[in-house]
Each structure stands twice: as C-alpha cells, then as structure tokens.
Design goal:
Pnp Oxidase, Chain A; alpha+beta
C-alpha cells in the first residue's frame, strides 16, 4: 500500500500491539477468475522464530476455503479506528482529510491439522474470553461437538513474510492543529473518539 514517510510505522512492538488489539481482519487472495476473494475473520497472533504468524479458520462452505493450499500466498488487512478530519478546526485555510490506521500482513498459507485446529479453536475462544467475568470453559466441550464443528471448518496459518503499517494520525500537523483535531474528534461518535485516543498515544 502507498504510505507517505511521515505515516509509515516500522516499530515491531507498536505493530504487534496494534494487531493484538484489533485482531479481526480481512483475508485477501486471488480467485481463479482473477478477482480478489475476501473473508472477514478473527485471528490469533503468534510469533515463531521472530516472525508474525496468524491462525484463523474458515467454513468449508466458504468458496475461499477451496483456494487455500499449503504455500498459497495471501494477505490479511487489519484496520483500526478511522475518521474524517475537518479542516475547519485548523488555524489556517486548508483541505479536509481522513485519518486511519491499517496494517497489511503478507505471507504463505498453511492448512492446520485436525489436532492443530482443535487447539486453535480453544485458543481463539480463550483470547476473546480473557476479559470476561464469566468465561466459556472449553474443557467442558463434548468431544462429539468438537468433532462436528471441526468437520465444517478448516484451520489456516499465515506465515508472514512482509508487513506494511500506515498510521495516518495527522503527524504532519503543528501542535495547535493536532490538539484541535483531537478535541473535535473527542466530541464525535465511538469511532471518532477511538481515533482521538490513538492520536493522543502517537504524538511524537
């Protein structure tokens, strides 16, 4: 993706934190007709030998599942908060813009074994249940139920070989305008408020 230098993020810890917080992405692959094929899915982020690895699953009924073979290449796009930025808050005349955070993870796909798929399913649930007071206990899942669900999905691992991260957060604005944007976004909807909080973290 196109990333102007001032919005490019290469710090690995920052990227890891972002994709850990926004761990719902779009798996994009080339279809047999040349058109992109996309699925929206939650994932578990891991690191193996200092490289990012994403694990997720798809329904076998999903057309994209039939395209996944070991070694097939794909991309997962992870988006964070995004919002329109009105130039009316600037201290000078200028055009409006749009702020956003996005990470592209490119890699080779690998189909999980049945045992790995069961493990992944439990890890995924544990990840999203971690902050809940009453958690789902996966140890109580009947074996027959696990078998039935496992027969309907495939587990996939994306071994990431390239990462691109664009955090466009008005880094190119002066301090007065930057704070004015944050104040304006803080009065908006949940997405605008979330972006304002991200901007507070990222001011150099």
């Amino acid at each position: 993706m196109y990333i102007p230098e001032e919005f490019n993020v290469s710090d690995r810890k920052s990227i890891k934190k972002f994709i850990s917080e926004y761990n719902f992405g779009m798996l994009i692959m080339n279809g047999i007709d040349g058109m992109p094929v996309v699925s929206h899915l939650p994932f578990v982020l891991k690191e193996i030998e200092h490289e990012f690895v994403l694990e997720f699953h798809l329904a076998k009924a999903n057309h994209q599942a039939s395209l996944i073979k070991n070694g097939t290449q794909g991309k997962v796009v992870v988006n964070g908060p995004n919002a329109y930025v009105s130039s009316s808050v600037y201290g000078h005349v200028n055009v409006p813009t749009f702020n956003y955070q996005a990470v592209h993870l490119m890699g080779s796909l690998e189909v999980l074994s049945k045992e790995e798929l069961v493990k992944h399913s439990k890890e995924l649930v544990a990840l999203f249940e971690s902050n809940r007071e009453k958690k789902v206990d996966t140890s109580l899942w009947p074996r027959e139920m696990l078998e039935a669900y496992s027969n309907e999905i495939i587990g996939v691992r994306l071994n990431v070989f390239k990462v691109e991260a664009a955090f466009k957060l008005s880094q190119n604005r002066n301090e007065e305008d930057y704070q004015a944007i944050i104040l304006d976004l803080s009065k908006g909807n949940w997405n605008e408020k979330a972006l304002a909080e991200e901007m507070k973290k990222w001011r150099k």
